[in-house]
Amino acid sequence: MNGAHDLGGMHGFGPVEIERDEPVFHHAWERRAFALNLAAGFLGKWNIDMSRYAREQMPPAEYLATSYYEHWLYGLVKLLHETGLARGEELEARLAGRPDATAPVAGLRVLRAKDVEPALRKAGASRVEKELPARFRVGDRVLTRNIHPLGHTRLPRYARGRRGVVAQDHDVWVFPDASGIGQGDKPQHLYSVRFEARELWGPEASPRDTVYIDLWDDHMDPA
Amino acid sequence: MSHDHDHDHAEEGSPLTETELRVRALESLLVDKGLVDPAALDALIDTYETKVGPRNGARIVAHAWVDPAYKRRLLEEGTAAVAEFGFVGRQSEKLVVVENTPAVHNVIVCTLCSCYPWAVLGLPPVWYKSAPYRARAVIDPRGVLRELGVDVPEATEVRVWDSTAEVRYMVLPERPAGTERMTEDELAALVTRDAMIGVARVPAPPEGSRR
């Protein structure tokens, strides 16, 4: 979706400010929001692409006015509601100081403290160990698709309808544009694609500079 | 951005913000439903506050600087090379390490969210996840670098990596002059997080401590 999260190339946000000796978290609630997201994710009711899509659906004005862990909180509340694990009304009731009687949800494998280390050492589940034909080879010229799906996509706006060259084949991965909206893994080849800065940003850009973007078979056509 | 470190003042007396109340209510709801275990939450937080952070990446960089065979493995197959140090896991399913040289200056960004190589750098800093960086790193990388004190010569290619998939990127920065006789541990102490993202160079040690 063309949401506020798709920031590449926007103007007007001001300078990048690096905080010296920055703590990992700035507030106690950020710690909890972070950990709640990870722990709830381990329940297995959604995947990482759905998590990103949920955050992206925050209304644009709100997205830009709130902090990173507020985006995470928004996405988590949305996913819990949509999966029925915890409805929005239940959270609102608790906030209003009149919690409903809460029955434990049965049949789920809950992350325990002793499972945390092994669970975090597992890399993830986005790589697909499967031989599938690649539509492109390293060195191929490609044209990215001019798509504007209402759902999730990992093809940023600034790189749509642009010409690039396949720099590396990363083998077969889950396709987030499908898995993020519950349409299955749709596994396919993922590539690192090289774009000249001038192809993306016009003649004012440096003639030497490049941007490398990871894109899937379904994001591109032969150029 | 606030530079004082009195970050948790709201928890110490002043009224809780709406967000704080919301997070508390959510945690109590999920705990009562048996969906999360508070002890597991503590363990998750502790992992990224005290165990996994940019010192991991700094050890990798220092080792690559002193061991040419390791450096070759690191640049060819990053995931396996950092696994030799036990650095594996979440947000690092495939790691690609890119080398800064006089010819190419690499910079890492995630314009769509906050993808970052957790296993070697820990959780990303606020500026990396912020709108200014995500917006500007791809359209004006030289401007961003200049503001942050890195002047990249015209003849050098600035190569920006937008992390749009589950592949994670880390920069192998240039080894500064005056470090030829330093030990691996001394070198690791010089390497900064920002240099491994590509928005800083590793500073040369002060004259007196060069070896």
How would you sum up this structure, described in words?
The complex is a heterodimer of chains A (223) and B (211). Chain A has helices spanning 28-41, 48-56, 60-65, 68-83, 88-95, 113-121, 176-179, 197-201, and strands at 141-144, 163-173, 188-196, 210-216, 220-222. Chain A is an alpha+beta fold. In chain A, strands 4-3-2-1-5 form a 5-stranded antiparallel β-sheet. The longest helix of chain B is centred in the N-terminal third of the chain and has 15 residues, at 18-32. Chain B is α/β, with parallel strands linked by helices. The radius of gyration of chain B is 20 Å and the shape is globular. Chain B is 44% helix and 11% strand. The interface between A and B is large, with 93 and 87 residues. Strand 4 (210-216) of chain A pairs parallel with strand 3 of chain B.
Task: Explain the layout of strands and helices.
The complex is a heterodimer of chains A (about 220) and B (about 210).
Chain A: H1 28-41, H2 48-56, H3 60-65, H4 68-83, H5 88-95, H6 113-121, E1 141-144, E2 163-173, H7 176-179, E3 188-196, H8 197-201, E4 210-216, E5 220-222
Antiparallel strand pairs in A: 1-2, 1-5, 2-3, 3-4
Helix pairs in contact in A: 1-4, 2-4
Chain B: H1 18-32, H2 38-51, H3 54-66, H4 68-76, H5 78-83, E1 94-99, E2 104-109, H6 118-121, H7 126-129, H8 131-139, H9 141-147, E3 157-162, E4 167-172, H10 184-190, H11 193-197
Helix pairs in contact in B: 3-4, 3-10, 8-9
**Secondary structure: helix percent of chain B:** 40-55%
Order of helices and strands of chain B: HHHHHEEHHHHEEHH
Any low-confidence stretches of chain A, pLDDT <50, length ≥5? Answer: none
Spatial extent as radius of gyration of chain A: 20 Å
Instruction: Give me the secondary-structure category of chain A.
Output: alpha+beta
| Largest interface, C-beta within 8 A | A-B, 93 and 87 residues
What spatial form of chain A do the alpha-carbon principal axes imply? globular
H-E string of chain A: HHHHHHEEHEHEE
Strand arrangement in the largest pleated sheet of chain B: 1-4
- Tell me the fraction of residues in β-strands of chain A, as a range: 15-25%
Q: What's the end-to-end separation of chain B, in Å?
A: 38 Å
DSSP strand tally of chain B: 4
What low-confidence regions of chain B span 5 or more consecutive residues with pLDDT below 50? 1-11
Largest sheet of chain A: 5 strands, antiparallel
Tell me the fraction of residues in β-strands of chain B, as a range: 5-15%
Number of helices of chain A: 8
